[in-house]
Amino acid sequence: MKLTITFLFIFSTFVAFAQPPAGYYNSATGTGFTLKTQLYNIIKDHNDQGYNAIDDFFPIADIDNYYEDDNTILDIYSENPNGTDPYNFFASDECGNYNGEGDCFNKEHVIPQSVFSSNTPMRGDAHHLLPTDGRVNGFRGSYPYGIVGSNLISQSGISNPTQNGSKAGNNINTGIAAGFSGIVFEPIDEFKGDIARIHFYFVTRYENLVSNWSSYAMFDGSSNKVIADPFLDILYSWHVNDPVSQKEIDRNNDVFEHQGNRNPFVDNPQWVQAIWGNSLSVTQSNTQFNFIVYPNPSNSNRIHIQSEAILDEIQLITINGQVMQQIQNPDHQNNTYTIENLSSGFYFLKIISDNQSVTKKVIIN
């Protein structure tokens, strides 16, 4: 495990990278929203093949060569990455009508069509169109993506969670997901990073249009940040915890062949943090003290906190709001505090001193 942190910026290591053409990103030299606009200018002029062309694209780009490797369609809403799939589709199983889960697959717009009024080129953009079970696609509807708690919704003709564990219900509205309590849809962990990077692509590719679209809970109405709190924190955590896969790399290359543009956040995952790092929420309550967090070089499950003030309490909190460790009046040497027995993950570290608190995000790999 390794901890890498600054006050607002969190870095993580991604081991898989796609291969864009030489020079494709030469003009992407900035940071923050300047970088986002530079990427927009690189990917904006894609060759829209149209919505109907996706029917022929799926059998090229979305065959399961990664799990069963059985020439079936890879559906993120039915795939079981650790065992037998509940059902499988072949390319001939696409349809528009269904009665129950497992009947057929259709086209899922990761960003709902209602957001952009089914206009082109968004409607046929292969980067955010996925083949998914028709019934589960209908179950997800236009709900935003989020973290579902125990309050699941009921819908006739489908189990919740679905047969591969995807689910819909009220957002947990705590921890990393605090700030939204409406209904959300949550895919399984295996594909959360895919969903996140699709969103980062989409709001970059269409930054010139997005502020004029219909109201959508995941979007804030701007053309720069676009992704609203708390959804930015949720998508960022998914992006970090589910790094770029070979499936995404291959599909990015296929989309490039199909329509002539790439998802830059599959090619260069670090750009997510470079663009949105300053916008990731950090709670600070008028604190009058400073501190730094750094890893122990000889013990990867231990971190140190060095503070100029004596700390009253330290809390390590999961993205779902669960307090994993709570240390009151912690021991210290020269105002240096130690937290041990850490597991990999995305956490909040809450530091309290003299009724003041600061919360920082930490990623432990």
Automatic annotation (TrEMBL):
Domain of life from the UniProt record: Bacteria
Signal peptide interval: 1-18
GO molecular function terms listed in the Swiss-Prot or TrEMBL record: hydrolase activity; nuclease activity
InterPro entries (alphabetical): Endonuclease-I, His-Me_finger_sf, Secre_tail
Presence of the UniProt keyword Hydrolase in the record: yes
Assigned keywords, A-Z: Hydrolase, Nuclease, Signal
Ranges of residues in domain Secretion system C-terminal sorting: 293-364
Keyword Nuclease: yes
Family statement drawn from the similarity comment of this UniProt entry: Belongs to the EndA/NucM nuclease family.
Name listed for the protein in its UniProt record: T9SS type A sorting domain-containing protein
